[in-house]
């Protein structure tokens, strides 16, 4: 049972373009929705995170949009750069006594120069 | 100064052998995790420890046994290795109360032949 569904599986964008990755979740008990970025041969690194009571969060060129009623959230990368080429994972976190982070299946982003 | 370190980085071994992967974090975090990333890049939680106490054990075969000698260390021992155990294993840690903000190690690529 996949609790966080991510799309697309892969994405090719031209330099300067907008990259958009979408995720949907089922469990309304999740209380944080982070995005992680992973470069080849490295561990994932936290990029940006949002709480479900906020509709949008922006950090530099990276923006999370959150739609609580639709149980969907997305990552927008503005002015995409070749250095942004990586695998992006959305995730959902359930706190309390669980400490569990559930990941989507990842999106391989390629930004062409 | 590496925040979350793992040893070894690469591990090649034969079926049936027993091996261990070590993890150390110098961030002062209370919670540590083990993840398995398969060939399709899917990240799956295996174990979570909070203050040396097991919190999450995600239907992992009994051949996998985590051990946390102290808050800064979480080791993973694997008995009777199988071909299907080949993957990249990531250790991670997070501060108390912010489990969505996880810091990952560089990973250990395990190849079972």
Approximate shape of chain B: globular
Largest sheet of chain A: 6 strands, mixed
What is the total tally of β strands of chain B? 11
Secondary structure: helix percent of chain B:
under 10%
Please give the largest β-sheet of chain B.
7 strands, mixed
Report on this model:
The complex is a heterodimer of chains A (113) and B (113). Chain A has 113 residues and is mainly beta. Chain A has no helices and 11 strands. In chain A, the strands form 2 sheets. In chain A, strands 2, 4, 5, 9, 10 and 11 form a 6-stranded mixed β-sheet that branches. A 5-stranded antiparallel β-sheet of chain A has the order 1-3-8-7-6, with no helix packed on it. In chain A, β9 and β10 (100-103) form a beta hairpin. With 113 residues, chain B is mostly beta strands. Chain B has strands at residues 4-7, 10-13, 19-25, 31-37, 43-50, 53-57, 64-70, 73-78, 87-94, 103-104, 108-112. In chain B, a hairpin with a 2-residue loop joins β7 (64-70) and β8. The mean pLDDT of chain B is 93.
């Amino acid at each position: 049972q996949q609790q966080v569904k991510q799309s697309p599986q892969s994405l090719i964008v031209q330099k300067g373009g907008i990259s958009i990755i979408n995720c949907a979740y089922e469990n309304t008990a999740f209380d944080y929705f982070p995005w992680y970025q992973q470069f080849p041969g490295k561990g994932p690194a936290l990029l940006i995170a949002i709480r479900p009571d906020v509709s949008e969060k922006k950090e530099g060129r990276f923006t999370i949009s959150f739609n609580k009623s639709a149980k969907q959230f997305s990552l927008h990368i503005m002015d995409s750069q070749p250095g942004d080429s990586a695998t992006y994972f959305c995730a959902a976190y359930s706190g309390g006594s669980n400490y569990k982070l559930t990941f989507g299946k990842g999106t391989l982003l390629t930004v062409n120069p | 100064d590496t925040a979350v370190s793992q040893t070894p980085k690469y591990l090649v071994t034969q079926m049936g052998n027993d091996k261990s992967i070590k993890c150390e974090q110098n961030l002062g975090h209370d919670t540590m995790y083990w993840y398995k990333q398969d060939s399709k890049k899917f990240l799956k939680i295996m174990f979570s420890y909070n203050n040396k106490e097991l919190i999450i054990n995600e239907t992992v075969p009994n051949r996998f046994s985590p051990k946390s000698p102290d808050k800064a260390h979480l080791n993973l021992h694997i008995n009777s290795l199988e071909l299907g155990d080949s993957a990249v294993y990531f250790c991670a840690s997070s501060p108390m109360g912010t489990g969505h903000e996880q810091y990952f190690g560089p990973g250990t690529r395990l190849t079972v032949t």
